[in-house]
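About this split. The held-out portion is used to measure sequence recovery: a designer receives only the structure tokens and must propose an amino acid at every position. Recovery is the fraction of positions where the proposal matches the reference. Here is one held-out target exactly as it appears in the evaluation file.
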């Protein structure tokens, strides 16, 4: 109650509202993100009190993560790295003439994911943080190895193409200076390659530029079709019966998102993809995923928003930021004399209460703002294709350059746009490429750190219980999927014989 009393001040509520609006805009524009919004707005909080400062920064953070679904659904272009998996079902549902429904589902389950993350942050953050302290480099490497084994779940029936896509993602992620020893790899003497390919550039090129090029090719062939927009839906786009049927899927997505958020340094860019493949693997109807189903939208949006609460748990409990955005938030807290960590609960308990209240208020405001603007968002699809794609292309170039202020990143989006277009023509799935690209650096860093810590003893991964469980389950899942794929491949031959 003290937190809500602090937040329910007219000036604080206005700041939260403005933060939500700006965050949604930054999340919806390809190439921008909530992290960039927080970084740009941080200097404006120096003169505020600690409650106002933290409230507006959290609103920007949550708005940026939730706003990413808008471009993912309507343009099939991820607004942020945390909304990549939303494309696979949200974009397909919009393509099938139900953009209102896709947005309604995504916005609603974004709210549910946010509230789940805040609830866990409020009531069980010390216990979760104490468990997370048991994770060392071996455990982190094992968790990421397990996530990489899920590539086979994204095969859509062709495991070979999924492995090709995943390996390509790993190779492109290895370009640049290696972690730990700073050795240059695959740079071919090009100085710009020393920093590797930026995630934002890869994401924009692989999805946005591919979509622009595909649209241009279709227009040249005369295959342009005007989007078939369904009338305005009633309610939120789903029935109470559908909501009840998705309870298990929602809980699983939220738990995975929360767990990934708690692990420092990984964040929503991985959480939504890992949650998507996990929910698909656990589903009784995995064939629905990627066809415009409610299941896939929920898996992506519930997880990436639950991840926000997860990233704040190690921040307030241990003083360790969970991702880049919470690292900026850490700086904002320290500017106001607040030092996150175990003593924060005793020394700044009122501020923690205000943070929880601000996140709840911001989540509800984001939900209301996005639901209220759904009709406006969908009207973008009525723009002529040549105008819409031209605007998207301009935003892509601006977003790529803004990330690191390098013209090389603009060239990178063209390269990944060509690769994405080639993948689409060859029917190679894009999801494994994304998973491999995002997770390679994390896996290599923690794996090499573990090897260095234990003097090259590989058995340490199996003698530590947590890492052993994840490695064994990952290997078992690969063997099981490979065996199922082989059996599935032999069946048609026997019938023909």
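Reference sequence for scoring:
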């Amino acid at each position: 109650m003290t937190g809500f009393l602090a937040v329910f001040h007219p000036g604080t509520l206005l700041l939260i509202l403005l933060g939500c609006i700006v965050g949604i805009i930054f999340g919806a524009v390809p190439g921008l993100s909530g992290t960039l919004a927080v970084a740009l707005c941080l200097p404006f909080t120096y003169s505020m009190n600690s409650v106002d400062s933290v409230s507006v920064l959290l609103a920007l953070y949550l708005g940026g993560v939730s706003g990413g679904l808008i471009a993912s659904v309507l343009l099939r272009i991820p607004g942020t790295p945390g909304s990549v998996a939303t494309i696979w079902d949200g974009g397909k549902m919009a393509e099938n003439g139900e953009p209102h429904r896709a947005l309604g589902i995504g916005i609603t389950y974004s709210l549910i994911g946010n509230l789940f993350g805040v609830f866990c942050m409020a009531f069980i953050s010390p216990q979760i943080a104490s468990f997370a302290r048991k994770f060392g480099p071996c455990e982190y490497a094992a968790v990421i190895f397990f996530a990489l084994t899920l590539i086979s779940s994204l095969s859509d029936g062709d495991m070979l193409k999924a492995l090709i896509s995943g390996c390509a993602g790993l190779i492109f992620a290895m370009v640049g200076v290696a972690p730990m020893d700073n050795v240059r790899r695959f740079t071919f003497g090009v100085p710009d390659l020393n920093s590797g390919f930026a995630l934002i550039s890869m994401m924009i090129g692989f999805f946005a530029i591919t979509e622009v090029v595909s649209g241009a090719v279709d227009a040249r062939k005369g295959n342009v079709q005007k989007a078939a927009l369904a009338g305005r839906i009633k309610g939120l786009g789903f029935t109470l019966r559908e909501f009840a049927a998705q309870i298990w899927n929602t809980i699983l997505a939220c738990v995975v998102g929360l767990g990934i958020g708690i692990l420092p340094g990984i964040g929503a860019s991985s959480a939504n993809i890992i949650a998507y493949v996990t929910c698909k693997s656990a589903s009784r109807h995995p064939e629905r995923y990627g066809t415009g189903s409610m299941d896939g939208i929920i898996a992506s949006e519930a997880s990436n928003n639950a991840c926000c609460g997860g990233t704040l748990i190690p921040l307030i409990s241990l003083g360790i930021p969970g991702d880049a955005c919470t690292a900026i938030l850490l700086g904002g807290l320290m500017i106001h004399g607040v030092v996150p960590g175990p003593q924060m609960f005793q020394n700044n308990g009122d501020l923690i209460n205000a943070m929880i209240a601000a996140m709840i208020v911001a989540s509800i405001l984001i939900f209301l703002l996005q639901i209220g603007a759904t009709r406006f968002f969908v009207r973008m699809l009525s723009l002529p294709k040549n105008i819409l794609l031209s605007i998207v292309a301009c935003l892509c170039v601006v977003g790529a350059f803004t990330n690191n202020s390098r013209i090389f990143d603009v060239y990178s989006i063209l390269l990944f746009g060509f690769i994405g277009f080639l993948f689409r023509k060859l029917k190679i799935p894009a999801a494994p490429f994304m998973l491999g690209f995002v997770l390679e650096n994390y896996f290599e860093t923690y794996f090499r750190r573990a090897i260095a810590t234990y003097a090259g003893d590989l058995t340490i991964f199996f003698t530590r219980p947590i890492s052993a469980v994840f490695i064994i389950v990952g290997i078992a899942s690969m063997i099981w999927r490979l065996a199922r794929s082989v059996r599935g491949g032999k069946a048609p031959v026997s019938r023909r014989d």
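Annotator remark: The CA atoms of residues 177 and 282 lie 37 Å apart.
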